[in-house]
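pinned: reference chain
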Amino acid sequence: MTTVRRSPRWLLAAPLVVLTVVFGAGLLRARMEAPAPVVPAGSPTPTPVLTEPKTAVVAEPQPRTDLVRLAGRVPAHGSGRFEYASGRGKILGAKGPVRRFQVAVERGAGEDVTAFAAHVEAVLGNPRSWIGNGRARLQRVGPADAHDFRILLATRETAGQLCAKGGIDIRNGAHPYTSCRTSGKVIINLDRWRLSAAPYIQWKVPLAVYRQYVINHEVGHELGEGHQGCPKRGAAAPVMMQQTLSLRGCVPYAWPRRGNRPLSGPRL
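pinned: its structure tokens
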């Protein structure tokens, strides 16, 4: 009988170790040698987006931090019917009367209502948002609960119809298909939710920041806030500025508060 000699296990594993080291070194070298992003000629020099450390009560779902807009086709219309987030959230804030809201996504929009509700609660539960002013507390409630307003994510056609019922035409002008607020309804346009807006894209602001802005802006209207202007060139843009349309010399900023105090501009 022939005796078969088996090599020690460490000898069998050695080639795998070598391959792993070589492959890892190749990845490291590729990352070190990767070219820097090229900014097209004639593009403005990006201004740093004014942000502060996050202290959100709820963890905020986000796309990649460097993503300024999502790729792919955005549905122009859905079913016109909405799916509501179930359950109740925590009461956000420490002072003021409680304003209760429902969250829903249009069926056919291709967005998950649970994920959208998590975004909304994370933004509104941040001390830099409206609860930080101490004038109101907010709570998300379920579809069968009494509520003060609704936050709806809708396709452009449905958003246009809902906004038109409140006397707002989001299709006019050089920047069609914005979001809006009508009585009892905060309507977030799916086009803007996925594609951001021209001023934010121009300055390469992440989509996650634009989403914070659009929620804060439209909910601000529901809480009685009107439009504001840029206080001075290079300053942080007040959240009640129509930053979807223009920054008017200001720097993008997504929150109603900055430096533990309200941030505002001249009333329009």
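why pinned: The chain has a mean pLDDT of 83. The chain has six helices and eight strands.
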